[in-house]
């Protein structure tokens, strides 16, 4: 669905499931059980949110993904939205809303409380009324819900506190009026998010930098994608021992960097870039060593 003019703070509104949203859920590699836990929480809220309101401790429909940049938080949320929409599709379509706290127009600066209140009490409920299910993604949620206990008094703390108060009130209002709405929030710094917001989350998932096992799977996946384009590379894509050795030298890389270093390996020389089918294990190790030197400051 293409909205000609989106409300303040809203950067995208889509109808799911949609074919062009396929991909992220399968391509992103995370520790075993992570996707199952996320999808289970999402489906529970989307399918049974209204019935669960009768519990003494009902869900708030909030999932928070935290972790360093490059760990796939936003991609995982986008994939989760599509996977959850597919899981509940027999009950109707899903509206997927993307919110960027930094996209509010400049004239609202200094009026954070009013902007946030409008988002939670007007904009999101109006969008949620369109379909049986709604999923909202808020990247960098700490921009809306700053931890008040550590807010600097040099950066308009009154407005910061009021904006966070508005988020808390908005979360409670959404749960009461839109039990079919799931809110996905990401943050690079859990410590920057207000404690009361985190306490309302049904699931707070910390995504760490990938370990060697996950890195090996990412490397294998990236090589398999290249082999799909250039079949002579199939032997590299199927060499698990090679993947493990490369992963050992990629410790400290995030998932994004691990994938990019595989792509960078075919761009090291013009002749290799012209014919990536000539890629060798030596080229891969050279690219990894160069990237590792950049990461650690050795180069």
UniProtKB/TrEMBL annotation:
Matching PROSITE patterns: AAA
Domain AAA+ ATPase: 59-211
GO MF annotation terms: ATP binding; ATP hydrolysis activity
Cellular component per GO, a single term: chromosome
Pfam families in the cross-refs: AAA (PF00004)
InterPro entries: AAA+_ATPase (IPR003593), ATPase_AAA_core (IPR003959), ATPase_AAA_CS (IPR003960), P-loop_NTPase (IPR027417), Pch2-like (IPR044539)
Matches recorded under SMART domains: AAA
Keywords of this entry: ATP-binding, Nucleotide-binding
PANTHER family: PACHYTENE CHECKPOINT PROTEIN 2, PACHYTENE CHECKPOINT PROTEIN 2 HOMOLOG
Similarity section: Belongs to the AAA ATPase family.
Protein's recorded name: ATPase family associated with various cellular activities (AAA)
